[in-house]
Specification:
The protein is mainly beta and 235 residues long. 11% of the residues lie in helices and 51% in strands. It is globular.
Length: 235
C-alpha cells in the first residue's frame, strides 16, 4: 500500500471513529450523564401505541440524535416521546440569576407531527403545584395545549403565547421556525412573572431541550441535535 493511500485511509478512519456514538440506547427510559447534562430517550407515553420505537445515539450532550418511528392512526394527537438533553437545578430562585441563556442547533426531517422545544420546570418537576414553560423553536403540524393569550417578542423572535387555566402549562410558540440560535430563558421567565403567572419566589428545577413527537408517518425518521449549552450566571 502506498504511503499516501495509507495516510488517506487512516485519516478517513479517524474521522469515522471521532463521530462514533459513545452511548446508544433503545430503552424507553434510557439515558446518559455527560458534562453536567443528561441525554434522555424519554419514551414517556409510548406504551399505549404501536409501533413506537426510538433509538438514541450520543457522542456528547451537544451532539446526539434519535432514529424513531410512530404514527397518529388513533388521531388523538398524543405526544409519545420527548428525547431531550437537560440540566437539573436544585430549586434555584429565578431572581438569583443575573443571566440565563441557552444556545442550540438541530436538524429535523419535516415529516409527521412534532415540535422542537425547551421544556422548563418551575417550582418542581411534573408534580402538583409546579409550572411547565415550553418554548417551541420549530413546529411541524403540532398544536399547543391551552388557549392563545397574546404575542410576545424576545430579541429577534416573536412567539404566540398559550396558557392552560386549569394547570401550570405555558407555551411560547415561535411565529417563525428557527433551527439554531440563542434563547434568553431568563427574559421569558421574568416576563411570565410580570404577568402574575409565576410567583416572585419561583425556582428553576430543570431545563430541557428536545423533540415532542406525535408521528413520523409510520416510517423511521432521524432527528439531530448538533449543539446545545446553557449559560447561567448568578448575582
Amino acid at each position: 500500500m502506498k504511503i499516501s493511500t495509507l495516510l488517506f485511509w487512516l485519516g478517513a478512519c479517524s474521522v469515522a471513529w471521532a463521530v462514533d456514538p459513545v452511548f446508544v440506547t433503545s430503552d424507553p427510559n434510557g439515558g446518559w450523564s455527560e458534562g453536567g447534562y443528561y441525554v434522555h430517550n424519554n419514551m414517556w407515553n409510548s406504551g399505549k401505541y404501536s409501533p413506537c420505537t426510538s433509538t438514541l445515539y450520543a457522542t456528547s450532550h451537544s451532539n446526539w440524535h434519535v432514529v424513531t418511528r410512530m404514527n397518529n392512526k388513533k388521531s388523538d394527537g398524543a405526544v409519545k416521546t420527548y428525547p431531550n438533553v437537560h440540566r437539573d437545578y436544585r430549586s434555584v430562585p429565578i431572581e438569583s440569576f443575573d443571566s440565563l441563556t441557552s444556545t442550540f442547533a438541530e436538524r429535523s426531517p419535516q415529516v409527521g407531527i412534532y415540535n422542537v422545544a425547551y421544556d422548563i420546570w418551575i417550582n418542581g418537576i411534573a408534580k402538583p403545584g409546579c409550572t411547565e414553560i415550553m418554548i417551541w423553536t420549530e413546529n411541524f403540524k403540532q398544536v399547543p395545549g391551552g388557549k392563545y393569550v397574546e404575542d410576545a417578542t424576545f430579541g429577534e423572535q416573536t412567539y404566540k403565547v398559550y396558557k392552560r387555566s386549569s394547570s401550570g402549562y405555558i407555551a411560547f410558540v415561535a411565529k417563525t421556525n428557527f433551527t439554531s440560535g440563542t434563547v434568553n430563558l431568563l427574559d421569558i421567565m421574568k416576563w411570565t412573572m410580570a404577568k402574575g403567572w409565576l410567583a416572585s419566589t419561583s425556582t428553576v428545577d430543570q431545563i430541557c431541550f428536545g423533540v415532542e413527537m406525535v408521528s413520523t408517518d409510520d416510517a423511521e425518521a432521524k432527528f439531530e441535535m448538533t449543539a446545545f449549552s446553557i449559560d447561567g450566571k448568578l448575582r
